[in-house]
Structure formats: structure tokens, C-alpha cells
Amino acid sequence: MTSPYAKGPDAPAGAAKRTRGAAADRILAAAADCVIRSGVANTSMQDVADTAAVSKGLIHYHFRDKAHLLATLVAWLTARVTGRQRAASGHVRPENAVDMVWSWVEGELTRGDLRALVALSLDDTPDVRTATRDALTVRRTSATEMVAAVYAALELTPRVPSALLAEVLVGFLDGLSTTTAVAEPGEQRVAFDAFWLALLTLGD
Fold first, then answer.
1. By Cβ atoms counted within 10 A, which residue in 17, 81, 109, 160 is the most buried?
2. Which range marks the domain in which residue 23 is found?
């Protein structure tokens, strides 16, 4: 019988690494769910284990303590959010500029990753605060790229630095994410349209 690792001597190690990565992702996804549902303070390692349907020991194998888990979660969520944001920015065209951005925003609001990041940003654990500061830098860069893509597609030149507009965009999105549970249908889109209308008036 041929081994599934017959492609070469490094295959077993590679497969094991992928398995560990998949387990860590599952734990991080569960941690995000717990943070959104219960808040950071009320999220325990046991809650994460129960949500991920794994043992608490497996969580400690990947993350030394709750602070390490949450700090890693900040970086993991940020990579997911900004990865999708950059993909959306790459598809901005003159005929769909604002709608393309909304499509991305709507997806993020549904997933809840932004809402989890906002909750995590309020945690004062040193490791989490450091991760949050690093995440904000990454998010500002990604937002700057998105603002620049929209203005370029519409052949506008911002009268203020794109980085400053990006800072406002990040703050707006964080605020919008906190309204998901209480917003009436269509309210978030109305707020989004009003925000971008104001933003685009800053261009020539």
C-alpha cells in the first residue's frame, strides 16, 4: 500500500505542520466567537475549548495562556480582515468603486471579525495592547490603500492626506461594527453611503 506521504521525506513533517495550523485556526475562530458572544473578560480557556470542541490541553499546547491566545487572535483577525480588504481594493473600478467597498464592509459586518477586534482593543493586558497597536498600524496601511484606490478610480485627488482619511475610515468601520446587533435593516448601508459621500467631497 502506498503511503500518503510517499512524495518525499519532508511530507510527514509538512502534513503535521498543516494539521497543527488547522488546529490553531480552529481554536482562534472559537476564541473570536467567544469574545463576540461573551466579551473578553468573560471568555475563558475552557469556553474556547468547549466552542472549538477540543481539549483545554490542546489549547495550551498552542497558546501558553489566555493573554497569548488573545494577542495571537488580534494578529490573526487583522490578517483576515486586511487580506480581504486588499482584495476588495484590487477590484475597485470607476463603475463600482463605492459598491465594491460596501460589499467588503458588509461581509466583515456579517463575519464579526471587526467587532471582535474592537472588543479586544479594550483589553489592557500588555500582550494584547501591543498586538492591538501593531494591528492598528496594519489596518491603517490597508485602509490607506483602499482610500487611494477609490479616489484613483473616480479620478479624484484628495485635498487631505490619504493616511488621514484612512484613519477616519478605520474609526468609522469600528463604530459601524458595534451597531450590527441593533441596527435596523439598511441602516448600516445608509450610514456607509453618507460617510463616503462626505469623504469624497474632500477630493477634487
1. 81
2. 10-63
CATH number of the domain that 79 lies in?
A: 1.10.357
Q: Are residues 133 and 35 in the same domain?
A: no
CA torsion sign for 11, 16, 20, 26 is: positive
Residues 73 and 56 in one domain: no
In contact, 157 and 126? CB cutoff 8 Å: no
Mean pLDDT for each 10-residue chunk of the chain (204 residues)?
37 49 92 96 96 94 96 98 97 95 96 96 96 98 96 96 94 95 92 96 94
Whether the pTM exceeds 0.70: the reply is: yes
Question: What secondary structure, in 3-state letters, does 133-185 show?
Answer: HHHHHHHHHHHHHHHHHHHHHCCCCECCCHHHHHHHHHHHHHHHHCCCCCCCC
